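Reopening closed ticket. The problem is back. First fold of the pair:
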Amino acid sequence: MSLEVIGAGWGRTATNSLKLALEKLGYGVCHHMWEVANDQERLVPLWNAALDGQADWHAIFKGNRSAVDWPVAGFWEELSQTYPDAKFILTTRSPESWYASISETILKVIDEPEQLPEPARPVSRMAKRAVTRSIGDDWSPAALIKKYKNHENEVKKTLAAERLLIFDPAEGWAPICDFLGVTAPAEPFPRSNHRDEFFANMDDIR
């Protein structure tokens, strides 16, 4: 099995909504940070190895046809070469609203992993490595907004137009279904992982 759809959008750009949408469209269980959190014993060591430069992509994505969110989005360029037939979806939102969201969710969770309950620490440590690989150590608003803009520009500049969909989930099913050549479901596009849901999911890990 090979990845067919890969998310290049960073966390807090509706990546969980995209995960649910791809699953609804028949792309199996979509690899997402929540999948890593729920299979820490297998996936955290594999992702740590990838962060050390020793990625085994086929082991990481065993059984997956799609993958989104961090750590995936931090390796979009490597994955574009490993899976040359895969299509990419860059979920997007305004840089300012992205910063407001990540600063109140992901950054709070990964800032001090040792302060979390023990069950959540391994994935939080790995997540901190994965996220800082993308955004660096300066988490000031100006620095992160600049990093976010640079990331989106690099994706747009690097990937061929026929491989890339720039997607605002507010647009609903039409763009993504046209891009993937599938039929739109007769139900609303998923809306998931708002801030309260994010912390509820963290409580499940704990």
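Second fold of the pair, where the issue appears:
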Amino acid sequence: MPNNTSPRSLALSSLLACEKCGRYTNLEIDSGLRNVSLSPADKGLYTRLVYGVIERRITLDYVIDRYAKTPTADMEPAVRMALRMGVYQLLFMDRIPSHAAVSETVDLVPRRSAGFVNAILRSFLRDGCKVTWPDEGDTEYFLSVKYSFPAEICALYLADYGRETTENILAAFNEEPPVGIRVNTLRHTAEEAAGLLAGEAENSAVPGMLSARLLSEKIRQGLEAGDWFIQDPASRLCTLVLDAKPGETVIDTCACPGGKSFSMGLDMAGEGTLYAFDLHENKLSLIRRTAERLGLEKLIQTARRDARQPDETLLGKADKVLCDAPCSGLGVVAKKPDIRYKELSSIENLPAIQKEILQGASAYVKPGGTLVYSTCTLRKAENEAVVHAFLAANPDFVLTPFTAGSMDSDGMLTLLPHITGTDGFFVAKMTKKTN
């Protein structure tokens, strides 16, 4: 990409790359920002446009199709994407003047398409940028268009949570999430870290955490120095439920990218043994590098291992075991908008795999020890159903009540983003009987 590009032209290139090549949004943005020189304001505009257009694609196409004679599906990719960017700015970016949103979008397309793009955007502008939503009688389609989720995903949430809660969940996923910062408590208290980031982060209600609106340069510098790392409060609450202590033997069976391992390691004050296992060897090097920056390299031991096939030398040896199973990720779409468009066929077999992984993880737990199962999805087939099936097959484990933050649980807890302000998350705590 050229170094003298504008943030809008860069956003158009990145959006087309994501659509054509299936690149993950965060990786494309990281690549885009590395290859250009932009002011902080232009970096923010570029990032907002890429994330926003992908997040709101269904809504944007619905609006465009109401004004264009040519369906969006039949448009040239660059023209379709430019129109999405233009409508997004008019509909969701209040600080951008309407004339700038229109003229800058028209400048992005070939001259032969400029009149077409200009006419659609100005027609939408003349109508006050008001959207006439579909009839609410078709609930799945209405929610799909209004909140930009595929109807199939809306149907999943409706089946699990009903209309009101589903709409609240979808609305929350379209809010810009704060940046969660887990403080390296081997070096700083949360209060000290907040002082270092004065004006850029504030104390969180979750122990050991700060919250920031933006990933500032000072925060980035602290990441490189090992003063803290990025972790959503929901993920931190999961490790609080596990309650790892100094001197214990702890196993994280699906550890990558490592945030929960690091958080548990800090809870252990770097004392004891923490095994960070994962199926993907190439990802374990990231855990090792970050553990060294945090001062946890002597505590955390990494190894490639299929969680369904536990290490026989560690059977019944662990005080605490975390099974953060691979899942559909349908609780983290606020941070990863690509996930909302994944094919449902790709998640159908997950519950069967999750049951096998949880069964394997349970073999590590000593009598009286703790087993925590967690996912970053709200889909009950991957959450409650998996835990109930495990408990039915393993009567030597029982659900254990716990308190996470201000929330009490009888052993299973779902964090709904519109209530907790966190990722959508599920955590279950079980104890292995002593006899």
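Update: turned out to be a display glitch only; the data is intact. The longest strand covers residues 365-375. The mean pLDDT is 95. Please close again.
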